[in-house]
Specification:
- By secondary structure, the chain is an alpha/beta fold.
- It has two domains: 5-110, Winged helix-like DNA-binding domain superfamily/Winged helix DNA-binding domain (Arc Repressor Mutant, subunit A); 122-351, no CATH class.
- Helix content is 46%, strand content 16%.
- It has twelve helices and 13 strands.
- It has helices spanning 5-24, 29-36, 48-60, 89-110, 122-136, 204-217, 234-243, 263-273, 288-299, 303-314, 317-326, 333-351, and strands at residues 26-27, 64-67, 79-82, 139-141, 144-146, 149-155, 158-162, 164-168, 184-191, 223-229, 246-249, 253-255, 278-280.
- The strands form four sheets. The chain has a five-stranded mixed β-sheet, with helices on both faces. A three-stranded antiparallel β-sheet has the order 1-3-2, with helices on both faces. Strands 5-6-7 form a three-stranded antiparallel β-sheet, with helices on one face.
- Helix 5 (122-136) crosses helix 9 (288-299) and helix 11 (317-326) packs antiparallel against helix 12.
Length: 357
């Protein structure tokens, strides 16, 4: 019998999580991902999905539990705590209280709170991407910039509400001379969130659904969906190759310089939770990885293959309807997984696409 790679990785995550919790007593989800996964810089022993399964294993065994206690700010950040309180109950309580404080602060920045009802980080990723695009010089912008924030309300007169868009200028990788295809409109959505983007992640389908609608409305035009996110899981890259879209992992979680964000408090999140990719600003160094991915798109990516695939797929009614369903953030996880499996079947049966995602 062949080995089960997923089972092995979940088992590794269980071992790592048990050891971490024995030492630290309490932790948040994003702290665990930062300290047990992302610290390995591209070669993690397991991924967030495996860590999620590991948490469930140890909760089912009664070794860990999730505490939901209200903070002074009124939030209830979920904190994972050890159930082994023998001789260290006070230490567990203190550790959990500290993690609640830090996570309450984090959520006040990314989700808003009573002082600031809106997210402070939402526009930061969009601004950073636009600055990276301008530095990379890979095409002509279609964005309207209002008070420093880019947006694309319409394409070809059709309402789309995209974060950004540009006409791509492909170049030969050696001579840097312009090459076809010309007139390709890259349609961009920026997701400045900590969650890794998997093929089942709802945020992915915002740009795909909008791009499919545009492609169906203007079948002779060439559109390339582009997703920009902090981190992407490898199967999403396989999916992009199969469907005909492009993924940029920025490797940064962008925060603005804002009066409600105290630099000292932000530094505590970075140091204590290991959220080392949090960055304030959008200079050349902070946007370097996005710039490099844009240059790769311009000089090395097979744009012609991607837009031909996307044109074929977007004309398929079942394909568009499944993207619409997967873009719905109110469907259950069971419904989402079923729809994703159906999308895979459509891709395999109607287009002969390979699996792997």
């Amino acid at each position: 019998m062949s080995p089960d790679p997923k089972g092995a990785r979940v088992a590794g995550a269980v071992t790592a999580l048990r050891a971490f919790m024995d030492d630290n007593l309490a932790a948040s989800k994003i702290e665990l991902e930062a300290k047990l996964i992302e610290v390995h810089h591209g070669h993690p022993p397991f991924e967030p999905a495996h860590l999620h399964d590991a948490r469930n294993v140890l909760r089912d065994r009664g070794e860990l539990t999730i505490e939901l206690k209200e903070t002074r700010g009124g939030s209830q950040p979920p904190i994972l705590v050890t159930t082994d309180r023998a001789r260290r109950s006070r230490r567990v309580d203190d550790a959990a209280a500290r993690k609640r404080l830090l996570m309450s602060r984090y959520y006040s920045y990314v989700q808003g709170n009573q002082q600031n009802t809106a997210s402070l980080t939402g526009d930061a990723g969009e601004v950073a991407f636009h600055e990276a695009f301008l530095r990379a010089s890979v095409g002509s912008s279609l964005a309207e910039v209002t008070r420093g924030i880019p947006a694309v309300p319409r394409i070809m007169g059709m309402q789309v509400d995209l974060d950004n868009a540009f006409v791509l200028n492909p170049l030969d990788s050696e001579t840097r001379a312009p090459i076809p295809p010309f007139g390709v409109q890259a349609l961009v959505e920026v997701k400045n969130i900590r969650e890794w983007i998997y093929p089942r992640t709802q945020e992915l389908y915002q740009v795909l659904h909008k791009a499919a609608q545009l492609q169906c409305a203007f079948p002779d035009n060439s559109f390339l969906p582009v997703l920009v996110c902090r981190r992407t899981q490898i199967t999403t890259v396989f999916m992009a190759k199969s469907l005909g879209f492009y993924v940029i992992d920025a490797r940064q979680h962008y925060f603005p310089e804002h009066s409600h964000i105290d630099p000292a408090n932000l530094q505590e999140l970075v140091s204590e939770l290991a959220l080392t990719d949090i960055t304030q600003g959008n200079g050349a160094e902070q946007t370097r990885h996005t710039q490099n991915r844009l240059v790769t798109l311009q000089r090395h990516f097979d744009v012609l293959e991607a837009i031909e695939k996307w044109k074929r797929h977007a004309q398929n009614h079942a394909f568009r309807e499944l993207l619409k369903t997967l873009n719905n953030d109110r469907i259950t996880n069971v419904h989402r997984d079923a729809s994703l499996n159906q999308l895979r079947r459509v891709m395999q049966q109607d287009f002969g696409a390979k699996g792997g995602w």
